Amino acid sequence: MRYNKKKLKMCVDFNNMMTKWVGPEGFTEKQMLAIGDEVERAYESVQAGRGKGMMGWTELPYNQDDVVKDILDTAYFIRKNFEYFVVLGIGGSALGPTAAFKALKHMHYNELPKRKRAGLPKFYVEDNVDPERMAALLDVIVPEKTVFNIITKSGSTSETMTQYLIIRDMLEKKLGKENVAKHIIATTSKDSGNLIKIAQKEGYKTFYIPDGVGGRFSELSPVGLLPAAAIGIDIKGLLWGAAYADEIYRDPNPRRNAPLMAAVLQYLAMKKGKNISVMMPYADGLKEMADWYCQLWAESLGKNKNLDGTACNKGQTPVKALGVTDQHSQIQLYTEGPNDKVITFIAVENYRKEVAIPEGCEEFPNVNFLCGHTMGELIRAERKATEFAVTKAGKPNHTIVLPELNAFTLGELIMYFELQTAYAGALLGIDTFNQPGVEEGKNATYALLGRPGYEAKKAELGSAPAKISRYIV
Ligand code: PA5
């Protein structure tokens, strides 16, 4: 597919972040200039880190030609042989595939008859260990027509490995041991963790997650690309969009580099105690993209150590909202509540479908005013009205504008948020790419369930003060 880059270029309107528009809760050129040296250092460190250490994600749009070919061949095979594609994974191994599926496929994709899905497999992402959910999945899939993509970078996450054990057992019982491998694809680290060893022993088709790509930065690696390709998403378009964003956002001046500008303003906001980042797309298709952003922002910035090892408690709590739905739930708080938020709206200029609002109710002018408009006009008007209301209330906000939603613009958006996060982490002076808080919980789970090697953690858990009934109400 061909994309017109210029027509599909996203842009970000930061006006309502500035004092001139939003009043005293906003920011000034002077404040930005005052941190000019910090911004320069952050920019330099992100640029210098490209492709190194845990910044392998910057190169994903450029270095995967062979992998993409393998993925497209595999996706073709899947489409010919299976009717259900199930992702088993959690966190970064599930949020990206879900976000791309929701953004780029029909909103009721799984309910469409096969012909209307162009013969593509139904798609499920299992990212929890709620037993009811697993049982429900097993109720709707047909094992002999299902391929399971087990995704885990570490190859040992309890949730994912639990799902794997259940699925392997089910396949063995239903299809026979000799047929299990035909139904499993592993996406994992090439040389660490348990899944790669299992995959080699069992002969599973395997894709690798590059070492320098952490879970939440992995959507443009096989983690996201294989599931996307299996359901017919243009993965080359995703990568081209990401490459385009990477190419246009290289300027050291934040005024010409939107993700850097966003990071600078969020950094100033955090310094002012604005510790909540609301992500509010005006497109149902981007609701799960907001979930993906929440993980990226929360896990990357929520840290208790600076790079020099000194203690801190940094980060900004991400909150997902959906326009217009949450105008009737959250916006009252955003306009009149505490001055502790930065709101990011995502606007889509052209929706992929349009629905006219028909004539009617002529005798009721207060209803009839809607007639002759379209739903697209209504949602755009509501977004502008909400932007106006929060700005009038003095609450800093900015708007990302996507010309339309397609594989290319989704790729742009993914790269934009990843760069913004990297710049924000550099400004905060923390390690953006680790997640010790997540690891602590993972390790405690291993200990509680008796994984060998976690005896000390089990003892630590056991040494917590005994619960007393007075505090259990
Ligand atoms: O961003 C991260 O690294 C985490 O959120 C992981 O994606 C999540 O914990 C799942 O880890 P894994 O892919 O190793 O199973």
Write the topology of this structure.
Elements: E1 11-13, H1 19-22, H2 29-34, H3 36-49, H4 65-81, E2 84-88, H5 95-104, E3 122-126, H6 131-140, E4 146-152, H7 158-175, E5 184-188, H8 194-202, E6 205-208, H9 222-230, H10 235-248, H11 258-271, E7 276-281, H12 287-301, E8 303-305, E9 311-314, E10 317-320, H13 331-336, E11 341-350, H14 365-368, H15 375-392, E12 397-404, H16 407-428, H17 436-448, H18 455-462
Parallel strand pairs: 2-3, 2-4, 4-5, 5-6, 7-10, 7-11, 11-12
Antiparallel strand pairs: 1-12, 8-9
Helix pairs in contact: 3-16, 4-9, 5-9, 5-12, 10-16, 11-16, 12-16, 17-18
The chain binds 5-phosphoarabinonic acid.
Overall tally of domains: 2
The CATH architecture of the largest domain comes to: 3-Layer(aba) Sandwich
The number of strands is 12
Bound molecules: 5-phosphoarabinonic acid
